[in-house]
């Protein structure tokens, strides 16, 4: 049976560059910031090769990590075995989470909202599975604030970038999408990955926290 997401060449490429970027581009530090203070049951979408797993704090009782791409999912399973918190890696896409409603205390979206096929539906699913008041931690590519790079992003997204980088769309606006999906964005900061150097279409990023409203 063919997986709903099938990017074997990109997956192989991503496994190599993502590990190198952990230290060279400072991604590991961003992951630590992203996950700090989490507790209880957590769902992570687009877990990739499991690079978030070592950064989950000990107060997390369980992580259900979805990864639809087969090669990356195998790597995530291996990473889960080394994690210090329980991690269950399962197949699935963000637009149809195979879990019960209001089952999680927190959710994590890390460098994945740029590539989901239906962003509003994926965010609606995350809102569904979070308990009222539950947090969504996000670390995502975002639309550039400068006109020149924003233009480059739009051109890249309409041409070869999604084909080369596993469906990634660099010009999406995660903050606007979260608000439109009914989340309350409680804090964020903009950053560039990597810090310094020549900016790429995927360099502008945003890291922050949103929540499902308590009275939802």
Walk me through this protein's architecture.
The chain is α/β, with parallel strands linked by helices. It has a single domain, classed as Rossmann fold. Helix 1 packs across helix 3. The protein is globular. The N and C termini lie far apart (38 Å). Keywords: Methyltransferase, Transferase. It comes from Streptomyces lichenis. One of its GO terms (molecular function) is methyltransferase activity. This is Class I SAM-dependent methyltransferase.
Summarize the structure.
With 216 residues, the chain is of the alpha/beta class. It is 34% helix and 25% strand. It is built from seven helices and seven strands; from the N terminus they run H-H-E-E-H-E-E-H-E-H-H-H-E-E.
Secondary structure elements and pairings:
Layout: H1 8-24, H2 27-35, E1 40-45, E2 60-66, H3 70-82, E3 87-90, E4 104-110, H4 119-129, E5 130-141, H5 147-158, H6 161-164, H7 174-180, E6 184-192, E7 204-211
Parallel strand pairs: 1-2, 1-4, 2-3, 4-5
Antiparallel strand pairs: 5-7, 6-7
Helix pairs in contact: 1-3
InterPro entries: Methyltransf_11, SAM-dependent_MTases_sf, Thiol_S-MT
Domain Methyltransferase type: 44-137
Keywords: Methyltransferase, Transferase
Average pLDDT, all residues = 92
Structural class: alpha/beta
Q: Can you write the helix and strand succession as a string?
A: HHEEHEEHEHHHEE
Report the uncertain regions: none
* SS element count, helices: 7
Q: Report the β-strand fraction as a percent range.
A: 15-25%
- Name given to the CATH homologous superfamily: Vaccinia Virus protein VP39
- How many structural domains can be distinguished in the coordinates? 1
Please identify the top-level CATH class.
Answer: Alpha Beta
As a percent range, the share of helical residues equals 25-40%
What is the CATH fold-level name? Rossmann fold
């Amino acid at each position: 049976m063919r997986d709903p997401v099938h990017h074997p060449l990109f997956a192989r490429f991503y496994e190599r560059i993502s590990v190198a970027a952990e230290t060279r581009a400072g991604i590991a530090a961003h992951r630590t910031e992203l996950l700090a203070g989490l507790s209880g049951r957590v769902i992570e979408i687009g877990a990739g090769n499991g690079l978030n797993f070592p950064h989950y704090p000990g107060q997390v009782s369980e992580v259900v990590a979805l990864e639809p791409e087969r090669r990356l999912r195998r790597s995530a399973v291996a990473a889960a075995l080394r994690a210090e918190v329980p991690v269950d890696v399962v197949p699935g896409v963000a637009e149809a989470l195979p879990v019960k409603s209001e089952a999680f205390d927190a959710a994590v979206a890390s460098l994945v909202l740029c590539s989901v096929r239906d962003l509003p539906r994926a965010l609606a699913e995350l809102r569904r599975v979070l308990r009222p008041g539950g947090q969504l931690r996000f670390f995502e590519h975002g639309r550039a604030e400068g006109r020149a790079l924003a233009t480059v992003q739009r051109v890249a997204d309409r041409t070869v970038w999604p084909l080369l980088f596993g469906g990634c769309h660099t010009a999406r606006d995660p903050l606007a999408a979260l608000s439109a999906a009914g989340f309350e964005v409680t804090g964020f900061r903009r950053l560039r990955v990597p810090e310094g150097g020549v900016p790429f279409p995927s360099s502008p990023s945003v890291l922050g926290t949103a929540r499902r409203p308590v009275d939802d």
